[in-house]
Amino acid sequence: MIKFVNASKAYPNGAIALENVNLEIQTGEFVTIVGPSGAGKTTLTKLLMQEEETTEGTVLFENVDIHSLSTAQLMNLRRRIGTVFQEFRLLGTKTAYENIAFAMEAAGKSDEEIVSDVPHVLQLVDLQNRMFHFPSQLSGGEKQRLAIARAIINQPEVLIADEPTGNLDEANTKEVIHILKKINDLGTTVILTTHDPALIKAVGRRIITMENGRVVSDETKRKTV
Amino acid sequence: MFWVRVKRVVKSGWINFRRNGLVSSASILVTTIVLSVLTALFLFQAVLDSSIVRLKNQVDIAVYFSVDASEERILALETTLESLPEVATVEYSSADNEVLAFRQRHADDYLTLQALDELGDNPFGGSLRIKAKDSTQYEAISQVLEGDSKIARENAQIIERINYSQNKAVIDRLNRLIDDAQKVGFFVTMVLSIVAIIIMYTTIRLTIYMAREEIGIMRLVGASGTYIRSPFLVEGMLYGFFAWIVMLIIFLPVTYFLGHRATDALGINIYSYYLTHFLTVGFGVLFAGMLLGVISSFLAVRRYLKV
After folding, report:
1. Which of A72, A76, A93 sits opposite B16 (nearest CB)?
2. Could you tell me the pTM of the whole model?
């Protein structure tokens, strides 16, 4: 489904974020990318979202080089990939309901679908009572659950969670991981990046370790139940 | 789907406008200043035009006839002059009117009036006051009367004096003044309009700069450039519309006051002028305000859509 072929990313100042990365992620996998800060985890996800471009090599999504996509095609790809970030990246001037509705509107969903699906997904992440609250009125855990709700509302094929628990306490971390596992069980490919060893243990499954922009190990564990 | 999108865009623009109260107020304030400057420039131009017209009306060529010139010949010349393309009006004043006017002008000058009485007969001849369609045409009219033309030759015996030569310096100065005033007016209008547009664009750019992070997030969610940009265009239009309302609230009473108190000084009733030209000045400024808002928003958002 997703392939990084000799993907490298270097910045104009000479800093190398990724070096010759080769990876293949299959549909329905739960992949955890681990490594210290600066290992290249976030760069890897940014390349997949085409937020940044490779300086060498290619990134393929369903065998299509995403670098060759037009703007409209890229926006279409982004609608097929849900994203959750450490810093939440919610729309501050919109309520919880509107944040999710916006993602649906961007995907061309009808008003009827929005009215029926948004409350449902908010209920899934236990935010039904925070529907008309603005992000600034939510706790860290609630913000992240809202970000997840927004990421999954259009039933994406892939969900990227970039350090989603970095700003959360233990209870909220467990809750977020639980939700991510549930999403994966429903068939969505999940790519989780983290540098938290406790989280790696909790998640299990396929673990890719990165250091200094390179993949140093790629292990697949048995699914935890 | 098109109308659903339009509805969503308008709703989203309106909601953003309402929720960003402080930013919207600041933008409306700046836009109000811009629209006020534009309106003031229109009105200034009207006052300038009116002053020019008033000055022009005070200029004419006076042709004084000898005492023995018959009224018939003077009126014949009047008809000839009226047919000239440069001539706007020709006004005849008889010898009797001339002496009456002289007496009125010197009503307090007992000695002069006594001297006039001692003369017995009316020493004044009739006169024609000629107004040109444009102040630059007095030279041409004067040539017809004083030069080598047929009209000049035929009337040389009855014409005693033409005051154009005496007034030439004044008329030339007036022409230069009018020309300079129009140039300065145009220059001031252009400079202030450009400054106003730059201020408005910078303000809207600032409001959109504050929303740059949200624009980036919208892009990551997969929203198209048009869908992200459109609510900002609606916001830009709303800034223009509400600024226009505020400007009207300021300008209507101000022009009303000036219309009632300063018509003599300004030369026109500025309130009446504003109302009669509302379709062009009023709605023109509204259109300009909304268009400026839309263009400024369009250009400002474009920069942050490259994610």
Report:
1. A93
2. 0.72
